[in-house]
Design a protein that fits this description.
Strand content: 15-25%
Radius of gyration: 35 Å
Distance between the termini: 60 Å
Oligomer: single chain
Structural class: alpha+beta
Shape: globular
Number of helices: 27
CATH architecture of one domain: Alpha-Beta Complex
Number of strands: 35
Bound molecules: ligand ANZ, zinc ion
């Protein structure tokens, strides 16, 4: 310096962004990197005109961490891309009336430009977009691997269907069994859909969580979602010879209550299955089942709905005491959980209790522990249980299970992953169905005749550019009307066959994208084996807590499956995961639907990217999130201006060896490093503000190397201004690859001074206390001295005169 220049952030920011790109500051050599550090952030999906400040918040937080790691000597790889396939992007394209394929190009430009402007250290040579055939070719390849491993299958799934609108309805669109739009009676249709067998991995997905360094709230959410229950499956003989079902199997977590079972309940779906197997149920029963199936609410809402039911007319035998008990049908039993049938113990289960009260069914207490007047759902001692009475309920569970030949069993809430989407904008599912082979019982998987994967060398199955891309409302994808797409040859018999016309869920695109980033240039393989060894698992992954279950579980499942097939050498894809908080604006989460989004471009334009970044990181602890307020931004703007001004002078090379200043510098290094490591960016910034205050106080003592330490500590947060000053100090290489400063304990040590003690102005002695101690601290220390009694006796202190680091004088009564 000196330059007396204005802090022209606009010019300076775009200037340094260009230089960084030219110098390849953020582009590690992936093959030869010595200390690889893969710093990943969740990639955005373009479902709007552009990114909002909430998105920038997340990206900046991840970038600050990456910059710290880079300066600490790691070869940081920080890629970015677009999760551009899927319903969000398609709906946006529909909204603006542009074909999704064209819109993708528009969004791509716009999003990348915004991401460039925020000044993140992205490795721009490695970006990827999920809708590029170069990418989704490998998404299809992943699908095929899962298929080969028996993890992909087709199954009929019941969906709501409006015969007049000719469309599938979501549960939310059905009101009292009628279509919310046209009020027609909604039908249930069974549609064939593709699923991934994620449930096969339930136990592993759950177990690994214990040893994973992930945000605790994400682990809790995953545990609940996987939902493991330990219990038993027990069988009740059904008293009928009318149809092919001989027994009812139930899943229970409380086999210890078996003697208290007074009835069984089956789901309407199971009742329907029995009818298909030949059960000629009564008219009332049939009607109840039909009606209930139509008005089925979502699983989560079952508990809130008043329970309905109907006696089936059938009876079963309780295997513990040979009692004859009735079988009921009710909507509070879910079809998709356990066996879809339960043993009801109204004395110890609230749902059963309500049901028994409503339909006047007997209640028998078999566990003592609670107030007999109230429903007792806990553990206790068994009663009224024949020779099993008087046992601890936990022990009784397995004894009773043994008695009736039941099986100890774990049950999971997790369901298989529904992959099919009857939409246009996604990766076509790379499967072919051949009618002739199906008839001949041929196929690649024994239980799925006629189905073949597309040959891997024929990938990608390209999504065609079609005019009629809108959802058809016929329950099939628009691709089902495109003959040139679906007509193909059977890979096995070479006869006429039909391609699958559903596309895959976008969550499949994002379930493996992190594997592709280092290998985006690979034409022949999904990922390069050497790069895999070097760069995985991902060192740090940062993203939103709203992805706790779906994305973050799918991505783990796919990694596990790939590990089992030896395509990757790890089963957990992310060493560390941290969830960032949410940005709040006017009391609500910033989101498009709330209409409270703030466009980052305006702020970058007005205050610069550094100010926006530093403000976003300052407003709250990163993992907690907080309020975005214009006014508070100004404080940060002023701080950066002060930084600029401070450096706008000739700074002496030689250190003044001012111990107070040195202590400030080294304590700041210590504090800022620790804060950044733990994503406490807000307090790191506070420390930097304190440091700058100290510098301003000792303005003539601050040396060049001390000033540079400050710049380095600020660099991850405000990369442009620090780079500009750094280079103007004569440094040739970027500050962002300079070495992170180390705190030296010897400077941090608190120096001690001898404080003079006077009583009524008379010298009494001295005491050693830390430099800059407060008056309170000095008084407390003096009160603890052995000679205190001798000096003060019983006299009361009236006044204290304290001169910091020098003298303390007590005035006594
Ligand atoms: C008898 C019993 C007695 C039960 C008792 C509980 C308490 P979680 O923990 O969620 O796994 N259940 C089983 N399958 C069901 C289904 N398809 N729909 C609705 N409820 C079902 O709960 C397992 C318990 O939920 C099972 O244990 C069963 O009720 C019920 F004092 O069996 B229990
Ligand atoms: Zn064939």
């Amino acid at each position: 310096m000196p330059k007396a220049k204005k802090y022209d952030f606009k010019k300076l920011e775009s200037h340094w962004q260009k230089i960084w790109e030219k110098e390849g500051v953020y582009q590690p050599n992936l093959k030869s990197a010595k200390k690889p550090f893969y710093n990943l952030m969740m990639f955005p999906y373009p479902s709007a005109e552009g990114l909002h400040v909430g998105n920038m918040y997340a990206f900046t937080g991840s970038d600050v961490y990456g910059r710290l790691k880079r300066m600490q000597g790691n070869d940081v790889f920080e890629p970015i891309g677009l999760d551009g396939f899927g319903i969000h992007s398609e709906n946006y394209a529909l909204k603006v009336g542009v074909h999704p394929m064209k819109q993708a190009q528009v969004s791509e430009k716009r999003f990348y430009k915004q991401l460039q402007k925020i000044g993140n250290g992205f490795a721009w040579n490695n970006n990827l977009e999920t809708y590029n055939p170069d990418y989704y070719r490998w998404t299809q390849w992943v699908f095929i691997q899962l298929w080969k491993k028996g993890l992909a299958y087709r199954k009929k799934q019941t969906v709501n269907w409006c015969p007049s609108c000719k469309t599938v309805l979501a549960d939310e669109q059905v009101e009292g069994g009628k279509c919310e739009r046209c009020s027609s009676e909604v039908e249930q249709r069974d549609l064939e859909q593709w699923f991934f067998r994620i449930t096969k991995y339930s136990d592993r997905l759950l177990k690994n969580l214990d040893k994973m360094d992930w945000s605790e709230k994400i682990k809790i959410a995953q545990r609940n979602w996987i939902g493991k229950s330990e219990g038993a499956s027990l069988k009740f003989k059904l008293l009928t010879s009318e149809f092919k079902v001989e027994e009812v199997e139930v899943f229970t977590t409380r086999p210890d209550t078996l003697f208290g079972v007074t009835f069984l309940v089956i789901s309407p779906e199971l009742a329907k299955t029995w009818m298909k197997l030949g059960w000629s149920a009564g008219e009332k029963v049939k009607k109840y089942v039909e009606k209930t199936l139509l008005t089925r609410v979502k699983e989560q809402e079952v508990g809130q709905k008043e329970k309905t039911g109907e006696f089936s007319g059938l009876y079963a035998i309780n295997p513990a005491n040979q009692e004859k008990i009735p079988v009921w049908i009710s909507d509070y039993v879910l079809a998709g959980y356990g066996t879809g049938a339960i043993m009801a113990v109204p004395a110890h289960d609230e749902r059963d209790f309500e049901f028994a009260k409503k339909y006047n069914l007997p209640i028998r207490e078999v566990i003592s522990g609670g107030n007999p007047q109230e429903l007792w759902e806990g553990e206790g001692k068994t009663i009224n249980s024949g020779k099993f009475s008087g046992l601890d309920s936990e022990w009784a569970k397995w004894e009773i299970t043994k008695l009736v030949g039941g099986e100890r069993k774990s049950q999971f809430r997790l369901r298989d992953w529904l992959i099919s989407r009857q939409r246009y904008w996604g990766a076509p599912i790379p499967m072919v169905h051949c009618e002739a082979c199906a008839k001949a019982g041929k196929g690649e998987q024994r239980d799925m005749p006629g189905w073949y994967a597309v040959k891997e060398t024929d990938l990608p199955v390209k999504l065609p550019m079609i005019k009629e891309f809108r959802p058809q409302g016929t329950g099939v994808s628009p691709l089902a009307s495109v003959k040139s797409f679906y007509e193909t040859k059977c890979p096995h018999c070479k006869g006429r066959a039909r391609r699958e016309t559903d596309v895959s869920d976008t969550f499949l695109d994002s379930a493996w994208y992190y594997l592709r980033y280092p290998s985006v240039k690979e034409k022949k393989v999904a990922w390069n084996k050497d790069l895999l060894k070097k760069w995985f698992p991902v060192s740090m992954y940062i993203g939103g807590a709203e992805h706790s279950v779906l994305h973050l579980l799918y991505v783990r499942f796919v990694a596990m499956a790939l590990k089992d097939m030896k395509f990757v050498n790890f089963e957990e894809p992310f060493k560390t995961f941290r969830a960032h908080g949410l940005l709040i604006k006017d009391g609500a989460k910033m989101s498009k639907s709330k209409g409270n989004v703030v466009n980052p471009d305006e702020y970058i334009e007005r205050f610069g990217a550094d100010s926006l970044r530093t403000y976003l990181m300052f407003l709250a602890p990163f993992e907690q999130g907080g309020d975005f307020r214009d006014q508070s931004m100004l404080g940060v703007v002023r701080f950066l201006e002060r930084v600029w001004k401070f450096f706008d002078r000739e700074i002496p090379k030689k250190s003044a060896k001012n111990s107070e200043l040195l202590r400030l510098v080294h304590q700041s290094i210590n504090k800022v490093t620790e804060d950044l490591e733990n994503l406490r960016y807000n307090t790191a910034i506070s420390s930097l503000m304190i440091m700058l205050n100290g510098f301003e106080t000792h303005i003539n003592s601050v040396s060049r190397s001390e000033a540079e330490i400050f710049l380095k500590l600020l660099a991850p947060l405000a990369p442009h201004i620090t780079e500009d000053i750094w280079r103007s100090l004569g440094n040739k290489k970027s500050i962002h690859i300079s070495a992170w400063p180390k705190a030296e304990a010897k400077f941090m040590k608190v120096e001690e001074i001898d404080l003079v003690i006077q009583i009524m102005g008379k010298f009494k002695g001295t005491v050693k206390i830390p430099f800059n101690s407060s008056q309170d601290f000095a008084v407390q220390t003096i009160k603890g001295l052995p000679r205190f009694e001798e000096w003060f006796g019983s006299r009361v202190i009236r006044k204290i005169i304290f001169v910091s680091n020098k003298i303390i004088n007590f005035v006594l009564e």
